[in-house]
Write a structure and sequence with these properties.
Length: about 575
């Protein structure tokens, strides 16, 4: 096959010349092609079929044991000027990075098939969607891209019509961590990744394109590419509010996006639009609308069970690719906290032995089409996306942040987002864990200088007066003994309901220096075994801790020097003054 778009055809020819594959396969995205690739990988041993009775069309891939996670220290943003990448990114001069990568790609696909994967991030007919082409020598990447993106002929047609696409070049190379790099060239809208076959490093549509490159594109074009889930909450009267929520990795985004309402909230429904990434645009009327650029989930498996996430648990019983989970003697996938079955073989294919480690890798994953989720919203395919009523930030804070609070306005909300942090979960009892600053949950994913990113966020009120409200939640507050105070999971809907009530103007709130907090009884705790004292503690503001936090946040802003927007400094200082007066 060839493409009539010379920019694409020339690039494919050039890459083939340089990497020397045996064959070139242009992916059309059909079911037959998917099955053919799966069958080939089953023969070569890259995939193995799981129990066809209980897990039909499910496959297991075991990666190289040294290649099991994103590698932030090997991920670079190669802007022309180092300041444009900012202290939040590793930077390399683009010419140096390109020379390094060209050397690693030379002959890298010898003996392999080169797959050309045209894909569209977002509904294929959406004006907010953007396209890319990934060239890879990994059939595992090709089938994962089929589940995670709109991949194939329709995407190629759009690319040929528009003439524009993000170029992503990937090779698993020799999987040597010494020769592993993920390079982004935002000025050229291109990505080069070598030496890893793992998700975020290799499925270039996801973190590399839809967050790092897209965030850069979004700033130039006036929109936002964010590490946010998108969820629709339908109340018993049938009205639906859409929320976009940003939490650092491993804070339960997938679970929240698929939440099942508690018994005490009959008539409520939860609709999933996305579990990881949201692209946010202002529409003609000035409302913020969201699309999910992805069409599948690449979710963490361990911990998934009928209580924590029943929708996901049911969804991954068919048509799923598992990576690095364990297996039972019956050839079913198994993982820690599955709460059923026993592991027989671990994630490295060895006979399971608890002495040598966990059965499933803690970062083992499922890849599955979003449409298989029982709570899938058909609006995930709507070209115009959904209107966002509220943006919700959150992190893991044992003592600091109350269960929920509302920012006073957009500018204050930008500070709430910029000060997101998560504590290491190994925090000792009674001690506060180490805070990893993760502004807007974008620390590993913002493709340019955070200071410029905050300035971009701060520019939105100049363009519209219809921006959504901004909130912060913390499901992870603990008591003195390190026990979680809030039950979490489905019960989180009670907190989201308060957020909706605030959006509708139906409920009062207490004004405090950090924002608006629920009044006593504002969060419905009917049928929940939680005392008034615990609710008070969950909503308590520890002034001393907040003073320290605000000071640390100020110090953090200083590391970005005078590029930090004045409006953000003003918010930080305003809070400092208010906390002093208490
Ligand atoms: C992810 C992550 O894989 O955020 O989604 O790390
Ligand atoms: Mn993520």
């Amino acid at each position: 096959m060839t493409s009539k778009l010379s920019a694409l055809q020339d690039w494919v020819d050039e890459v083939a010349d340089h990497t020397q594959p045996n064959e070139i396969h242009w992916c059309n995205g059909s079911d037959a092609e998917f099955q053919q690739l799966v069958d080939e990988m089953t023969v070569s041993g890259t995939l193995s079929a799981l129990n066809p009775e209980t897990y039909p069309n499910c496959y297991l891939h075991l990666s190289d044991p040294s290649d099991v996670a994103r590698v932030e220290h090997l991920t670079f943003v190669c802007t022309r000027k180092q300041e444009d990448a900012g202290p939040n990114n590793n930077w390399m001069d683009p010419a140096e990075a390109r020379a390094k990568m060209d050397a690693l790609f030379e002959g890298a696909m010898r003996g392999r098939t080169m797959y050309v994967i045209p894909y569209c991030m977002g509904p294929i007919d959406s004006p907010y969607a953007r396209c890319g082409v990934e060239i890879t020598d990994s059939p595992y990447v090709a089938v994962n891209m089929r589940l995670m993106t709109r991949m194939g002929s329709a995407a190629l047609e759009r690319i040929e019509r528009e003439g524009k696409f993000v170029k992503g070049l990937h090779s698993t190379g020799d999987l040597d961590p010494e020769r592993r790099f993920i390079m982004h060239f935002p000025d050229e809208l291109s990505i080069m990744s070598v030496g890893s076959g793992y998700g975020g490093n290799a499925l270039l549509g996801k973190k590399c394109h839809a967050l790092r490159i897209a965030s850069y594109q979004a700033r130039n074009e006036g929109w936002l590419a964010e590490h946010m889930l998108i969820v629709g909450l339908e109340s018993p009267n049938g009205s639906v509010h859409y929320l976009a929520c940003a939490f650092p990795s491993a804070c339960g985004k997938t679970n929240l996006a698929m939440l099942i309402p508690p018994h005490s909230m009959p008539g409520w429904k939860v609709w999933t639009l996305g579990d990881d990434i949201a692209w946010l645009h202002l529409d003609d009327s000035g409302r913020l609308r969201a699309i999910n650029p992805e069409s599948g989930y690449f979710g963490v498996v361990p911990g998934t069970n009928a209580k924590t996430n029943k929708n996901a648990f049911d969804m991954i019983t068919h048509d799923t690719i598992f990576t690095n989970v364990a297996r039972t003697a019956d050839n079913e996938p198994w993982w820690e906290d599955k709460q059923t079955g026993e592991p027989a073989f671990d994630w490295q294919g060895r006979e399971y032995d608890p002495q040598i480690g966990k059965a499933a890798h803690p970062n083992s994953r499922f890849t599955v089409a979003a449409k298989n989720n029982p709570s899938y919203s058909a609006l995930a395919d709507a070209p115009e996306g959904v209107p966002i009523s509220a943006i919700v930030f959150g992190g893991r804070r044992a003592r600091l942040a109350p269960l929920v609070y509302e920012a006073k306005n957009w500018q204050h909300g930008v500070m709430v987002g910029a000060s997101v942090g998560s504590e290491t979960t190994a925090a000792a009892i009674g001690e506060v864990g180490v805070v990893r600053r993760d502004p807007m949950a974008m620390k590993p994913f913002c493709g340019y200088n955070f200071a410029d990113y905050w300035a971009h966020w701060m520019s939105f009120p100049d363009r519209t007066d219809k921006l959504p409200k901004i909130f912060h939640v913390n499901w992870f507050r603990q008591d003195q003994d390190g026990k979680f105070l809030w039950p979490g999971f489905g019960e989180n809907l009670r907190v989201l309901r308060w957020i909706i009530d605030r959006c509708e103007g139906d409920i009062g709130a207490k004004e405090t220096p950090i924002g608006f907090l629920p009044e006593d009884g504002g969060i419905d705790t009917a049928e929940l075994d939680i005392s008034d004292e615990t609710m008070k503690e969950l909503l308590r503001i520890d002034v001393e801790r907040w003073r320290t936090e605000n000071q640390h946040f100020g110090d953090y802003l200083d590391t970005f020097g005078d590029r930090v927007p004045e409006a953000l400094r003003v918010e930080q200082q305003r809070l400092a003054q208010k906390l002093e007066k208490l």
